[in-house]
Amino acid sequence: MSFEMLFVLLLILTMLAGLIFEVARPDMVIFSALVVLLLSGILSVDEALSGFSNEGMMTVALLFIVAGAVQKSGLIDQMMGKWLENSRSQTGSMLRFFLPTSAFSAFLNNTPIVVTFTPIIKKWCEDRGIAPSKFLIPLSYATILGGTITLMGTSTNLVVHGLLLDFGMEGFSLFTLAVVGIPAALIGLIYLFTVGYHLLPDNKGFSQQIKEDSKEYIAEMQVTPAFEHLDKSVKDAGLRDLKGLYLIEIIRGDDRVSPVRSTTVIQNGDRLIFTGLISTIADLQKIKGLKLETGTNIDLDDLKNGTTNLVEAVVSDQSSLLTQSIKQAQFRSQYDAGVIAVHRNNERIQSKVGDIVLKPGDSLLLLAGADFVDKYQQSNDFFVVSSLDTPATLNQSPAKGWFSILVLLAMIITVTFGWLSMFKAMALTVLIFMAGKIISPQEAKKYVHFNVLLLIASALGIGVAMRKTGLAEWMASGLLEIGEPLGLMAILFIIYILTNVFTELITNSAAAVLMLPIGLEMAETLGYAPMGFAVVIAIAASASFITPIGYQTNLIVYGPGGYKFTDYVKVGLPLSIIVMITSVLIIYNVWF
């Protein structure tokens, strides 16, 4: 092993450790590794930047815009909501909902699908007394399974396709992966409807628990004339940094002040609404002039008014809020919203709200301005799940909604018949959407997840370093020494398992980029066509079921479903094994 190979190997291991232990956002960890390779001279500037011009990566950017434009109308959401309402039994409901959801995921980005449908399913479950936890993990898994069916189903498929083109090989057609994806999806869904359903926990949703136990979350104090800080600001009155408590609203006659700022002035007769550790409310009673309202009839639903809403939001894995406390992030002033409670692992975090350090997947119950959902729906900081008060409405005229769906279908047809490449068809679709004023350039920019693109492009540069230094060839020969005596099928299983483990620990696109050069080297050494190896890696990188952190959609339903980490292992491990066996057997018989 040369010094350069050893250096790249150590850098990749350091990068993996950084991703596993969440020392920073995944895109920044991988980009940092790319910068080190550039500064060390292992990669030239052109090689380091090659990932930023990769066709697969650029196609992913266009896919974000197309999916956002189609879903903007709300037509699909409305249709699925009505379709679900007609269901009677739980199994029938799962069939009616998850089969079409998988089909949608084959052609649309699955992250917005899960963000959109999570509140629809939650409300449907709560209205019928069904635990949302029985439906939300299956929602995520159904979209992942659907994404394995087509080239545009996930960013991973497009990245592998782009890499194959970069290597001078023929990429995937639109339905190359369907040979494996459709059987794997059908078998996976049958498992979820039967065995998987019984393995799922029976949890109440976060918002359901809070509404049932309102008195554990909020308390009311009355300001009397004896209060010595009358007509002073909240900060000067000493009500900003209370032990375990958080002032979220002031009721003043018929008016409400929410969220409460440090400059808000306290007046006689104000009703102060606190959240946090209500067990510490006794400390407030020691303050002269503040009287605890023991018979208060305030509950969570009373907090909302014309200008505020109760919103449930999930912290994303790309959030700028990670690794700092709510107070350090200046949450209240930054988002014009007060945090009422934080849920993690199906439990409310029992500490002062301001001191909680947020992690990916945390569920926040917020008292927020009426425009919070619209404002932060596309934010990298949150997967905004829903306002708990207002139902989803159509965001544009039905005519534009139907037009966007028809344009998407036309794009699929042009790619299917080979009239245009995926990239050209996507670019034309975005142009038509802008010319038809389906979306504006500003909206298009909002739909693109630039952090995902940075991650993919940086990972592609690291893949170049692996090939250039000979590390990919060295690793491939090492794996072949283990697998060759066991036969080709054993080698395919080894590649699948390695890729899948990387996906669960880091990210799906990074896993595909790291494993593809190794898989292609193995194919060349063994004398096989590379397509079978590429398909194994694409499917294995997408099929992330065992952890909530391996795939964004798993993270989105983590908090709202009240799940624990072990729930994903219990339900996802058998599904991973089923999909792996199905995929490898089909690939072995079709491509070898």
From TrEMBL:
The chain crosses the membrane at residues 6-21, 28-45, 57-76, 97-121, 141-160, 172-200, 402-435, 447-466, 486-516, 528-551, 571-591. One of its GO terms (molecular function) is monoatomic cation transmembrane transporter activity. It comes from the Bacteria. It is a multi-pass membrane protein. GO terms for biological process: potassium ion transport. One of its GO terms (cellular component) is plasma membrane. This is Di-and tricarboxylate transporter. It comes from Lentibacillus persicus.
